């Protein structure tokens, strides 16, 4: 450990499946050698990358240098498509070597990895996919929950990747990466979390249901749905405007340098899909009915891989070269 970096023991060390009790967290931890700060609370406010409790703060020079970095070409028509359960799923694949699978956060797409894919692809085979309902993937009219995306990524790894891989997730994608690791332990060799979101409500935890009265069933619920549709319809119309997207992005990026036309279009274009408004309604009503389990401010707080991509790329490449290249049977995790 370098003299400029003080490390505290990681608070989160293991994640277990309730059935298998199998740990997917590492015996070894990546420890970047850049100047560090200990406080994760400060990290969440000021921005940076964290590896199991170690934070590496992005500097202004790092933010400026990204302008000259290699960037994934923006293709309005998308890259590759795979059919899953009758739905079209968009994905990107670049590079050769051991595979990495990148999973974006809420409201984003594969293009949110624009500065990461080209750099990581120099040493690895990089896959990035759009979760169902987001990006260039179909806006399916289904009942969305976290397990839908878990199943999607597990099948993507089985049918497209077809070999052991490291799974990388940001925000909502971080939670998905963890559930994929539990659901597909034989194919997940490591997990990297970039400002991961919290857990969704587990389907196995059934809430006690109270008997509905006739008034609740036939009057209150229909009126509530109508109200939600009107309000959320207006909010979606407002949220999909490019100027509004830019404003929101600047409020959630600690460093808004990279909030540009590319990023705004990568979010606004999928919102023009005819089914996008209905998908938004279904996603948001699930959030609204489980507010204690998932909140948008926790999901959309910070995007280190796009704000300080050089620092994130370096931390990931260092961790991959030390931990994943060892080919040991024990799964490993990186928390950024």
Key traits:
globular, 7-stranded mixed sheet, 3-stranded antiparallel sheet, alpha/beta, 336 residues, Rossmann fold
The gross shape turns out to be globular
The CATH topology of one domain comes to Rossmann fold
Structural class of the helix and strand makeup? alpha/beta
- Poorly predicted runs of 5 or more residues: 1-65, 199-209, 294-300
CATH architecture descriptor text of one domain:
3-Layer(aba) Sandwich
Kindly report the name of the CATH homologous superfamily of one domain. Alpha/Beta hydrolase fold, catalytic domain
Order of helices and strands: EHEEHEEEHEHEHEHHHHHHHE
Beta-strand content estimate? 5-15%
CATH class of one domain: Alpha Beta
The Rg value, from CA coordinates, equals: 20 Å
Overall mean pLDDT stands at: 74
With strands numbered from the N-terminus, the spatial order across the biggest sheet is 4-5-7-6-8-9-10
- Sheet with the most strands, sense and barrel status: 7 strands, mixed
* Terminal Cα span: 18 Å
- Helix run count: 12
- How many strands? 10
Helical content, roughly? 25-40%
């Amino acid at each position: 450990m370098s003299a400029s970096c003080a490390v505290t023991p990681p608070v989160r060390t293991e994640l277990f499946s309730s059935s298998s009790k199998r740990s997917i967290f590492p015996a070894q931890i990546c420890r970047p050698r850049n100047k560090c700060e200990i406080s994760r609370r400060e990290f969440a406010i000021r921005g940076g990358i964290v590896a199991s409790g170690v934070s590496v703060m992005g500097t202004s020079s790092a933010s400026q240098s990204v302008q000259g970095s290699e960037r994934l070409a923006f293709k309005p028509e998308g890259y590759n498509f795979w059919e899953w359960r009758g739905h079209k799923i968009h994905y990107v694949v670049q590079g050769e070597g051991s595979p990495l699978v990148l999973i974006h956060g809420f409201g984003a797409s594969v293009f949110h990895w624009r500065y990461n894919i080209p750099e990581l692809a120099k040493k690895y085979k990089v896959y990035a996919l759009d979760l169902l309902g987001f990006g260039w993937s179909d806006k399916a009219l289904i009942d969305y929950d976290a397990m839908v995306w878990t199943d999607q990524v597990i099948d993507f790894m089985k049918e497209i990747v077809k070999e052991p891989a490291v799974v990388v997730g940001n925000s909502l994608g971080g939670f998905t990466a963890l559930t994929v690791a539990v659901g597909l332990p034989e194919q997940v060799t490591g997990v990297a979390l970039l400002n991961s979101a919290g857990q969704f409500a587990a389907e196995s935890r059934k809430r006690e249901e109270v008997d509905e009265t006739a008034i609740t069933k036939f009057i209150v619920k229909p009126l509530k749905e109508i109200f939600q549709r009107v309000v959320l319809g207006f909010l979606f119309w407002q949220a999909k405007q490019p100027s509004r997207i830019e404003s929101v992005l600047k409020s959630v990026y600690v460093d808004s340098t990279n909030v540009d036309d590319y990023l705004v279009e990568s979010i606004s274009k999928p919102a023009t899909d005819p089914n996008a408004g209905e998908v938004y309604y279904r996603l948001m009503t699930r959030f609204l009915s489980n507010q204690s389990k998932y909140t948008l401010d926790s999901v959309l707080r910070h995007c280190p891989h796009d704000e300080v991509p050089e620092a994130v790329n370096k931390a990931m490449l260092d961790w991959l070269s030390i931990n994943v290249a060892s080919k040991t049977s024990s799964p490993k995790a990186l928390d950024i």
